[in-house]
Amino acid sequence: xxxxxxxxxxxxxxxxxxxxxxxxxKLASAVSNAGGLGLIGAGSMYPEVxxxxxxxxxxxxxxxxxxxxxxxxxxxxxxxxxxxxxxVDIVFTSAGNPKTWTSFLKSKGITVVHVxxxxxxxxxxxxxxxxxxxxxxxxxxxxxxxxxxxxxxxIPMVKEKIQIPIIAAGGIATGRGMLAxxxxxxxxxxxxxxxxxxxxxxxHNNFKETIVRIKEGDTQLTLKELAxxxxxxxxxxxxxxxxxxxxxxxxxLIALLGRARAKKGMFExxxxxxxxEIGQIAGLIHEILPAEKIIQEMMADFETARKEKTKFxx
Length: 314
Hints:
The chain contains 14 helices and 11 strands.
């Protein structure tokens, strides 16, 4: 066992990212049943929808699972109360100050993990009393840090500053990537994009097919004035870039983004007008697989790479 498998009582130190429009109970329970930690992505769910997914996840797995809660969303108080009422044991918080909810959740016996993009925020999360942090590099899909620090440099910098367990995220979809992150100081990994292209992902099949077609350079971090997000370069992305040429105000960017743009892309499958959030690692994802198979392949690749690394000893 390592610090992450011990903390969550799971078999493998693989956490499935709680991605909006991708991470319903089917994916979370499948990952948990396969030995990882599945997360329900609360960011795209109304409170009562979240409650339903938690209840269905409990019925679908007897293994530990958690809920990812972006704190910038409305109804945050209602969502936190639902998590407590439904007896969720693990909560990952992101996009906000960890001090706001950590003590409340911990007082209810909940294990709390916070997502950060820098060692400064990692220290703040540790001071707030979280049990572990996810250190997410700029390669990741979806909302991201403004610093553009890559996973390769972020993990050792965070490791230097904090004592609590570290989960590496951003650009990890293989066992080799997992081993590299752990050699750099991570105790486990969080995997998003690879699970977005799983059979159990709640994303639209159009989006899943797009993920497996993506090549190197087909995504870009943009919209930093609002909340930095890594997107596939589609029509919507090109519209954003065209607007940037006119030095737009923040209000003009908000108007272009509009409402439910991510839902339109990832959940409804509009590949032109939708916001398609995926990580740079998508260039290494070539097929849609069951979550269990993804974990099996990652662990087999991890073991192979671990044995091979002896070749580099001098």
